[in-house]
Amino acid sequence: MEPWVALLILMLVLILLRVPIAVSLALSATIALFLFEGMNTIPLIAQRMYPVTRSWVLLAIPFFMLAGAIMEIGGLTRRIVNFSNALVGFLPGGLAAVTVVASMIFGGVSGSSSAETSALGSILIPAMKEQKYSGRFAAGLIASSACIGMIIPPSIPMVLWSFVSGESLGKLFLGGIIPGVLIGVVQIITCVIIAKRRGYGIRTPFSFGEVRRTAKDGLLTLVTPLIIIGGIVFGIFTPTEAAIIAVFYSLFLSMGVYRELGVRDLPRILIRSGTTSAMVLFIVAGSTLFSYALTLMEVPALITAKLLALGSTPLTFLLFTGILYIILGMLMDISVIILLTGPIIAPLIAKVGLDPLHTAMIYMVILAIGLITPPVGMDLFVASGISGIPVDQIAREAVIFVLGMLLVTVLMWIFPWTATWIPSLISI
User: Of 159, 191, 244, 395, which has the fewest Cβ atoms less than 10 A away?
Assistant: First the structure.
């Protein structure tokens, strides 16, 4: 058996034994390195794992997560929901459409689909149940619409892709705007059709006065995405500085303007977001060590040769890598997928004649599908924890939204400008 095959099997066995994925990656890599390097393994572990966690780019991750947690507890999420209801609550199954619009707005701040599922699900799942939506549909919709959070900027997976590929993070953020909006539109249309067929929801009469009132009440919250993206695009601050500004701005609104967040709430928020951030960065460190072990075994060169042989044309390359990402998305966390495969696949994109930015956006949408596909769909488990509904039932309701995201992926391939037009307007 090839050494790299044994390494992969060991990692999968540890994951199946419910060992945390970061530990599974680091432990299996450590064993492999011990076999290759002997007692030199111990300093190698520190040399490979520690420096990557100090990356200035990756520092944006914990701050975006902290901003999302502040929004959830500080009343900002509720204002987003109220404004979304004023905008689209008049549609059939109005609250379902509200969920999608709220996800699009919230995604412009937190950058984390899991944070979005938690924040919006705690408000909207009980509200939809009160309006006679089935709990399964409500949870499936929350999990599916939260995927928009990793497409519409800012996006933690895009931060990771920029880290491994060297692609401009500002361009990645701008490239996600149209695809994110397309997914939102498709999901709203899907919600309207389902609501009509099943008789879901209560329609709220449209009122310009209500739109004006909720916009005024939530104006300072609604401009947060503009501050973050505008500051990055126009060179006022870096993405990491933007994440820090998002934290302080959210604190200012929650504690100083709306006064729904107290000093006593801060320890709980810091512990919650800190724990989640540590988990992500531990995965980053473990993935880096695992990737180094694979490199010693010359696996990247082997995979590169295979991919180039199978995908000698842009379409076949994108097809093979897309299928690979769909399969991996069902089995692994998105962060791990990007960190393990990005350094191998990213350099090949331009070689086969694909546009790196356009291709990255297609990958982001494909990877977002993994958030709502079992057995490892993270958003499914978060929605299940909030609603109390089994993951398999939520996954069945999410199938129709998966098909919608695949449709958007096809549209992005046919019309590359969906990912490249906005970044081409601004020099970054």
Answer: 244
